[in-house]
Amino acid sequence: MRHLVLTVIGDDRPGLVAALADTVTAHGGNWERSQLARLEGKFAGIVVVGVPDDQADELLAATRTVADLEIAIHRASDDTADDAEATHLTIGVLGNDRPGIVRELSSVLGANGLSIESMTTGTREAPMAGGLLFEAHFEVRVPAGTDLVTVRAELERLAAELLVDLGIDEN
């Protein structure tokens, strides 16, 4: 069984997921995991499929015929060896929106060897003060041996500098 990672994007319309799922199933594939969203009128996502080795080339060719979707396919990597010893953090951020918040947070995480496994961001109206609030939710993998006290201190220093609320939970 081969695992493939499909990245998809197209103008949103009803039936896009069904068309992609039909194509995967018709070629012996199994839809295993996905993250899909509608953003600014576009449908975008990432899908992991398992497919028998002898069907993979046919599935690759068939994805080119799915109407209204641009699909890129990548082989999944086997980098799960370090996961057994890794811990995870859930990080939440809320504050006034301004350019650079994601860059600053991701720079601190990367500089400390942490890997972002998932990230969701958005803006919403600030109910009392007007303007926009920025919200972010990160799921982060922390390699064994990482000094979490230092990571927390750096994130808290940055949150104070950015004037955002920060929540950190260890999983």
Mean pLDDT: 93
The CATH superfamily of the largest domain turns out to be: ACT domain
Task: Give the neighbour order of strands across the main sheet.
Answer: 2-3-1-4
Structural class: alpha+beta
Strand content: 35-45%
Largest sheet: 4 strands, antiparallel
Count of beta strands: 8
Going by CATH, the architecture of the largest domain would be 2-Layer Sandwich
Radius of gyration, Cα only, in angstroms?
20 Å
CATH class designation of the largest domain:
Alpha Beta
Order of helices and strands: EHEEHEEHEEHE
Outline: flat
User: Helical percent range?
Assistant: 25-40%
Whole-number tally of structural domains:
2
Give descriptors for this structure.
Alpha-Beta Plaits; flat; 2 domains; 171 residues; alpha+beta; 26% helix; four-stranded antiparallel sheet; 4 helices
Task: Provide an overview of this structure.
- The chain is of the alpha+beta class.
- It has two domains: 2-75, Alpha-Beta Plaits, CATH 3.30.70.260; 83-170, ACT domain (Alpha-Beta Plaits).
- Helices cover 26% and strands 44% of the residues.
- It has four helices and eight strands, in the order βαββαββαββαβ.
- It has helices at 16-26, 56-63, 101-111, 148-162; strands at residues 2-11, 30-39, 42-51, 70-75, 87-96, 115-125, 132-142, 164-170.
- It has a four-stranded antiparallel β-sheet, with helices on one face. Strands 6-7-5-8 form a four-stranded antiparallel β-sheet, covered by helices on one side.
- β6 and β7 form a beta hairpin.
- α3 (101-111) runs antiparallel to α4 (148-162).
- The longest helix has 15 residues, at 148-162.
- The protein is flat, with a radius of gyration of 20 Å.
- The mean pLDDT is 93.
